[in-house]
Specification:
Layout (H helix, E strand, L loop, with lengths): L2 H9 L20 H15 L5 H7 L2 H11 L1
Helix pairs in contact: 1-2
């Protein structure tokens, strides 16, 4: 599973709708449950811990991928 798929699953949308510049925190389905789902999936799949504030600060798929890559 990649980051786009993780975000798509959390937002209940198709991963093909998500590009690197997709601002997931502005999607109407983004809420605290979606954030928790992403945080948990990142830890499960990539073995990295991302806080809620770090996730919120990342905002885009590309920025989140950069955070995960820097830690992995």
């Amino acid at each position: 599973m990649n980051i786009k798929e993780i975000i798509a699953e959390a937002l209940e949308i198709d991963a093909s709708e998500i590009g690197d510049d997709f601002v997931f925190v502005e999607h109407p389905a983004w809420d605290s449950l979606a954030a928790l789902t992403v945080i948990t999936a990142l830890e499960d799949h990539f073995k990295v811990v991302v806080s809620g504030s770090e996730l919120r600060d990342a905002q885009t798929v590309a920025a989140l991928a950069a955070q995960v890559t820097a830690r992995g």
